[in-house]
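hey can u check if this looks right to u? its 431 residues, i copy pasted from the old doc so theres a chance i mangled smth
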Amino acid sequence: MKRFSFSLQLLLGLLVGVALGFVARAGEVTWLADTLTEVGKIFVQLLKLAVPPLVFTAVVVSVANLRNVSGAARLAGKTLLWFMVTSLAAVAAAIGLGLLINPGRGVTIATEGAKAVDLEGAGTWIDFLTGIVPTNIVTAFTELNVLQIVFLGVVLGAAAMAVGEKAEPFLAFSRSVLELVQKALWWVIRLAPIGTAGLIGKSVATYGWDLLAPLAKLSAGVYIGCAVVLLVIYPVLLSSVGRVSPLTFYRKAWPAIELAFVSRSSVGTMPLTQRIAVDRLGVDRDYASFAVPFGATTKMDGCAAVYPALAAIFVAQVFGLPLDLGDYLLIAFVSVVGSAATAGLTGAIVMLTLTLSTLGLPLEGVGLLLAIDPILDMIRTATNVTGQLVVPVLVGRAEGRLDTAVFNAPAQSLDEAPAVKAEKEQELVSA
């Protein structure tokens, strides 16, 4: 496999998974379907295993690193502003598409048996806001509440900045843990071609196209909406604001986008996203160490903008509830302000629940969409990760923290682990 690039390995895994999934489904090969399911499950579990220490240490270190960055407050403000601007553009496109295709009109689907999804701390804005602050530090990590972990990381990172030199042992420990987790997670990422085959194969073998039939317009709408964001909104911003080539951007960012598509986890893709941002796209390392971790946990154009907007329109039309201009403005508001609720993990159920409850729509609508959620989540997560790379490029270009020579240079190989690459660079400097 060393003869093939990492990107090609991912593509081969994708094709093999699709083929095996069709064989398992068409031939009713149970053992093959079970094997694909277990392979994909183990890969996702390995990614999730690293999430708590990765998110916590990355946020702590990234916040603390801001003290080494000139104009840190301005950089942080611009990053958050672009997070909101791109989310607003994405949700506007999704609402327009929803009004055009009417995804729920004419859909005959039984709603009597649908049940509201019981998500503690996700039903209302009060639940969401109070859920940010953990009642117990340990449970925030053991229950994998990424939003609470981010909160703890921000608070301790800011406290470390305020304390100064006395906090250096804590920051040194956090940096060390972050390096260890990233190294271990890189080994997991190198297994992504195998995990890709399992995840895609399991989806094909389990769902096929049967479940898409009654929800075809919504499914197509989500993919088309994400395609509009990926192929229209982002390229326009990259060329007009960033003054860089969208084709070069996508060619270099493709491995992260592809891994996000199959893993359905922005946080799990984060080490690869950050490496591509620095080594391939030329974003300043100190700035990227802040922007990428925060983007991986809060920047969700697919899960928090495109999908909730289309799904809310779908649910309203299925249940025969009209939406007015105020409702569409509420959808936009929830998408821009509440995207942190998605927390960078697989799925966008929390964000959809928050949107429906804000609009006063039946939460039973969530239950109608759970069956096809894994299929839709792939394109949503790919859109999320792309946006998490677009914003650092835009801000970096505007603030003189984007090395255009690196951006325009041939793409560097991703076959070596980051630490190995750093050691070789150090040897060259010493020589």
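The first helix runs from residue 6 to 26.
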